Amino acid sequence: MQMRMIIDSRLPPMTRSPMLQAQNTDWTPLNLAMTDAVVIPAYDRFAAATTPLASNAAGFCAAVDDTSLGALQQDFIAAYDGWQGVQHIQFGPITYFNWNFRLQFWPDDKGTGARQLDALLAAGDPAALTAGTFAQQSVGVQGFPALERLLFSDDSLAALKNEPYRCQVVQAIAHNLDDIAHGVAQRWRDDFRATVEKADERGFFESSQDATIDYLKAVIESVRRIQQQKVEAVLGDSQATARERRAEAWHMDRSVQHLRTNVAAFATLFNDSTPALNTVLVPADLPDIQQAFAKLQQDLAATPDSMNTAVKSAEGYAALKQVDADLDALFELLEAAVKKTDLYLGFNSLDGD
Amino acid sequence: MTPLCNRRQFLALTALLLGPAARALATDDTASAPLLLSAASTRDDQHFLIGFRHDGSSFHEVFKLPLPERGHHVAVNQTRGFFVSIARRPGTTLVLADSASGELISEIRAPADRHFYGHGVFSADGEWFYTTENAFDDEGDTSGRLVAWKVDGSGRNVSLTRTFDWPSGGVGPHELLLMPDGNTLAIANGGIRTHPSHDRDILNLDTMQPSLAYIDRSTGALLEQQLLPAEFHQSSIRHIDVNASGTVVFGMQFEGEAFMTVPLVATHKRGESLQLLLAPAELQPQLNQYVGAIRFAADGRHFAASCPRGNQFTVWDSSTGTLVHALRARDNCGVIASANGFVYSTGMGKVAELDLASGVVTEFDGAEQLALLWDNHLCSGAVA
Predict the structure, then answer these.
(1) Tell me, what DSSP letter sits at residue B22?
(2) Domains in chain A, ordered, with CATH?
(3) A100 CA to chain B: closest CA distance, Å?
(4) In CATH, what number is assigned to the domain containing residue B211?
(5) pLDDT of the residue at A145
(6) Shortest CB distance from A10 goes to which of B61, B174, B328?
(7) Would you tell me which residues 280-319 of chain B have a C-beta closer than 8 angstroms to some C-beta of chain A?
(8) Angle formed by the axes of helices A144-152 and A112-123, to 10°?
(9) Residue B135: pLDDT band by 50, 70, 90 thresholds?
(10) Could you say which residues from 137 to 196 on chain B have a Cβ atom under 8 Å away from some Cβ of chain A?
């Protein structure tokens, strides 16, 4: 490779490049539009969905039967769906106090959560379940994966009927989910929205553009994340090596429904505010991106509802492979589109030394 | 013409109780300002070694040397006027260039069974150069190596000759430095085993054991070795600095579960135990378990730890073991002490200075326009 060297090229300090122009644009109207039209409503929906779960769990242990368990499972499904609608937002209040991990510690390839839950159940200590103390318990016992295991295992009905403490753990987790969901929604409304609004050199964000990058990452990085964690991890290298137990929510077999909710939420964040997040990209790039979103959602709709069953049939496995390809295509389009703008999602933070 | 500066007050967690810091005289003549060196890349994956100066408000590029692969740290030979850019792990090139002009002198490749870890250091007299290396086919505990190179010649004829090859006191050695006694090397052994055939994958996640090792550079003898408590064995010790009185500070990158609260910085004095430090509870998780670079301030008491994954630039007081400032700075990583505090660089293209006494951050005009992704380390290009 020929080495060239440029000596002493001093740029006049007042030169304005497109990057600096973008830096001087006020992105606050966009950030607030996304916050008000998409993010806060999504967190409100999540909090609204955890409330029935918590209140119905409160009375559940007095009368555990098929019907009451079925009803609580439906409440759980709705609450988990609410979480799937905001799971991609990984900045702001969800990062406080480890709330994100306490809601859902997953993937958990080492089975840490299961071990922690088993230990909690074995200890049987009522003091561990009081409102103040439960929040201090291991992360793996506090959230959706633990509660899913308690409500959707084959022996759940019998176990919850016969083991009062197990049922109390259900109540504690439901209450904890509700507390956190409301806590996050409230922090966004009462505090973080103002932080986003004041995103200039005096505030938490370095600039309004700095905040916009977090919203953009919530879409783009989440496309890649669900591809790798929710699809490819299950598919393995071939159908013979597929592992349905690596799917999110495999106990209740709602992994495909979660994917549909996730993608819909990405599209909503990308499109459904005025102005919309998609306006940060070059307009000519948008038709292909929207088409990629549409194809992905179409193919997800056509995928069998049961991922556990899908991976066992050639057609189902092929449908999931198609979803994998669609996610890949969408990510590549988004990444290429971002490269044409002055926005950059990270360098040192992506890969270290 | 008054440069357009971007000044920010940063978010102080506690009151700053420093005496007035020594201040550099304001000058418009950047030629006398210290030369700083950093690896940097462009968004289309070209890699460079940039030499630049600043006058407290503006950035001035001095030279831009293309690199064959991504750089990392730059070590300057104080007596013979050249620097060495060491390739980022698992790179195999050392690029030697003239300190003042950045003119390429030569390129050295590692032996076939070795790669570098991005760091190297010269002895104060400029006679010896030390690199950390991976003898990646060595499956034992001696795969981490410290290599001593003899420096000969000067100018365009300068050469480095591999002379000694010692164990580094741990697996996965990373940054190393010369202690104030001029004879002891301190090495941050990250504890992570990798092999080029597995790219940058961690091969020993469950058994990794980082260490801080002190080695006699004349004999290779291990003088002292400090290990972390077992619960933190996945906190990879990667970057270190030392003050004039021999207090070492090091920064870590945690490879365990994402929800764990683990110390990311620590201090140490020879013969004493490690002091592991935590940020306040609401801030510690925001650091995202990762320190990118660490440097003492000129006062030898405060130090900065950059957290590129948490987008936080943190400042600590080593005498109290507490965090005193946290500044939001997306993708910040490179950091170096300046007369007024710290200069830091970011993967978003910014280069800025934090004035410790006043708390003001000044982003240097002229840096962002270059659209460079400043790499992990900011180094001094000054020669004695």
Answers:
(1) P
(2) 26-197 (1.20.1420.20), 207-339 (1.20.120)
(3) 9
(4) 2.130.10.10
(5) 97
(6) B61
(7) 282, 285-286, 290, 292, 308-309, 311
(8) 70
(9) very high
(10) 174
Instruction: Write the ipTM.
Output: 0.82
Q: Which of B38, B42, B259, B377 to mutate to test the interface with A (most CBs of A within 10 A)?
A: B259
Q: Is some CB atom of chain A closer than 8 A to the CB atom of B373?
A: yes
Closest CA to B177 of B237, B113, B233: B237
Give the distance from CA A340 to its chain's centroid: 27
Is the pLDDT reported for residue A207 higher than 70? Answer: yes
pTM above 0.80, yes or no: yes
**Predicted confidence (pLDDT) at residue B161 exceeds the cutoff of 60:** yes
Residue of A nearest to B310 (CA): A349
Kindly state the DSSP code that residue B23 receives in the 8-state scheme: -
CB–CB of A13 and B3 under 8 A? yes
- Identify whether B1 is part of a domain: no
Categorize the per-residue pLDDT at B29 as very low, low, confident or very high, splitting at 50, 70 and 90: low
In a domain, B222, yes or no: yes
Q: Where are the beta strands (DSSP E) in chain A?
A: 6-7
Give the gap in angstroms from C-alpha A13 to the nearest C-alpha of chain B: 5
**Mutation site, B290, B331, B374, interface A, largest A CB count within 10 A:** B331
Q: What are phi and psi of A226, to 5 degrees?
A: -70, -30
